[in-house]
Amino acid sequence: MPDIYVRSTDGAAGDDGSTWALAKDKIPAAPQAGPSATYVSSAHSQTSAAAVSIAMAGTIANPSKLVCATDTAAPPAAVAATAVVATTGANSISVQGSGYVQGIVFNCGDGFNYANLVLNSANSGTANAQRYDNCEFNLNDTHPSSLLVLGSGNSGDNTRTTLANCRIKLTSINHSVSLGGQVRINGGSMPGTSTPTLGLFNFINGYKLTEVLIENFDFSALSNSAILFIASSPGAQREGIAVFRNCKLPAGWVGSLVSASFDSPNLRVEMYNCDSGATNYRSWVETWAGSVKSETVIVKTGGASDGTTPKALKMAANTNANEPLCHLLSPLLAGWIDTPGAAKTVSVDIIHDSATPLTDAEVWLEVEYLGSSASPQGSRASSKRATLLTAAANVAASAATWTTTGLSAPSKQKLSVTFTPQMKGEFLARVVLAKAGKTIYVDPVAQVA
After folding, report:
1. What is the rounded distance in angstroms from the CA atom of residue 181 to the CA atom of residue 204?
2. How many Cβ atoms from other residues are within 10 Å of residue 406's Cβ?
3. Structure confidence by residue, pLDDT tens digits, 341-378
4. Overall average pLDDT of the 122-151 stretch
5. What angle do CA 444, 245, 104 make, to 5 degrees?
6. What are residue 178's DSSP bridge partners?
7. Contact (CB, 8 A) for 48 and 87
8. Which of 105, 160, 155, 158 has its CA nearest to residue 129?
9. How far is CA 233 from CA 198, 199, 239, 339, in A?
10. Could you give the CA distance from residue 121 to residue 93 in angstroms, rounded to a whole number?
């Protein structure tokens, strides 16, 4: 099929769209699949007092292409980012099917009206992928229930939604962005957004595992009390993992990664290297069993450091943590074995605020290593007690020196595992905390002896 041209300033519904001079006045309801494209003039602006539905006819293998561009040549010589698709009142915008969209500004609703901006969430039972480059998504109404929806949470759908260098605006403090399927947001910002009081993002209520990566994004226009993720919603069926990485936070941020404790053991939210200033080591992980955060006050002397700032991990288990089933896990700590065939001991230092030592039923170290010389199949060693019926033993004391500011009864202990690797290579260690309501500090260095 030939390329289609769209320009509201002089286009007409009756024109065939074959040239700029014969442009359509509105984006087609079903943009054709590739290799041809639908080119939308940088001067284009369409506003509807009815719902707008765009059902791209493309597939993942042969996607539709909806491209805002300059209109001085055909095909265009340069892309742009100023074409507008808008609705007024309680009228939603929906974009479905597989396709690529460049430079479109979507303005959804106005006034105190309920209108959703929905991308890639059709209940089609098929696989759909959408990518948006340099677009804007503006929820312009103030109704508390309006949503920006990216992807589908339905068990029969398989969706992948990508936003690259896009801008998002939420007008009401009750708005949020609902995520489903696989979602990638790389770059972009939220200018003019009213900071939602419950949280910015959440998983769509459904029965589909959601996987989200938000990186290189600018949240600095939000208030310093912003909550990034809505973790709890009564009666909802939500599961998945969301990762925030290399993002800019509001100045003086005192908000939270999540809104509350999780209502599902299948939720996990992680944040790495996100801050408002020149700090590049901050981390925060929230799980069903508790949280793991970067720590720069209670640290081991001569322990982990980025070369300037000493660092530790603060692991805070909540009331869900228990030995048999629900564990709070540290990030993986990597090390290297150069001499296989000889016994090695891997150790990690911890400290906590109690005169009572922790036992091997409450905290332990797990190490995955190459235990076979014939294949890379891994083996696991653990300092945990052998069974639930084995008498718990105190974890060994440690002679390490720590800064203990704020601890009234600091107790230093060392977690150790001995094993015999059979192949030269990497090992992975992690600290496991299983005592409900307990907080420990971990030096994230796997010592090898």
Report:
1. 9
2. 9
3. 999 999 999 999 999 999 999 999 999 999 999 999 99
4. 91
5. 175
6. 149, 202
7. yes
8. 160
9. 10, 12, 12, 51
10. 12
Task: Pick the more confident residue, 414 or 231.
Answer: 414
171 and 27 fall within a common domain:
yes
Cβ of 335: how many Cβ atoms within 10 Å?
Answer: 16
Distances (CA, A) of 318 to 15, 175, 261, 311, 415: 64, 29, 9, 23, 21
Q: What pTM value is reported for the model? A: 0.93
Q: Which one-letter amino acid corresponds to residue 386? A: A
Asked if residue 64 lies in contact with residue 30, where contact means CB atoms within 8 angstroms, the answer is no
Dump pLDDT digits (tens) for 171-208: 999 999 999 999 999 999 999 888 888 899 999 876 67
Q: Do residues 12 and 158 share a domain?
A: yes
Domain end position, chosen among 140, 161, 194: 194
Task: Give the residue from 107, 111, 108, 178 showing the smallest Cα distance to 142.
Answer: 111
Tell me if 431 is assigned to some domain: yes
pLDDT in tens, 251-303: 999 999 999 877 778 889 999 999 999 988 899 999 999 999 999 999 999 99
Segments forming the whole domain that contains residue 133: 1-194
Average pLDDT rounded to a whole number, residues 334-343: 95
**Is residue 234 pLDDT above 60, yes or no?**
no
Residue 306 tokens, joined: 């980025």
Task: Report, as an integer, the average pLDDT of 383-391.
Answer: 97
Out of 194, 227, 244, pick the residue that ends a domain.
194
What is the residue type of 248? K
Q: Are 64 and 106 in contact (CB under 8 A)?
A: no
Nearest residue to 347 (alpha-carbon basis) of 253, 424, 412, 276: 412
Spatial neighbors of 158 by CB under 8 A, at least 6 apart, are 126, 127, 128, 181
411 has pLDDT over 60: yes
Q: Work out the percent of the chain whose per-residue pLDDT is above 70.
A: 97
From the list 380, 350, 336, 338, the residue with the least C-alpha distance to 444 is 350
Confidence band for 41, pLDDT divided at 50, 70 and 90 = very high
Q: Is residue 56 part of a domain?
A: yes
Question: In angstroms, rounded to a whole number, what is the distance separating the alpha carbons of residues 73 and 69?
Answer: 10
Q: Is residue 361 part of a domain?
A: yes
Q: What is the rounded distance in angstroms from the CA atom of residue 157 to the CA atom of residue 144?
A: 27
* Token reading at 260: 């509350």
Total domains in the fold of the chain: 2
Instruction: Tell me, yes or no, whether 112 lies in a domain.
Output: yes
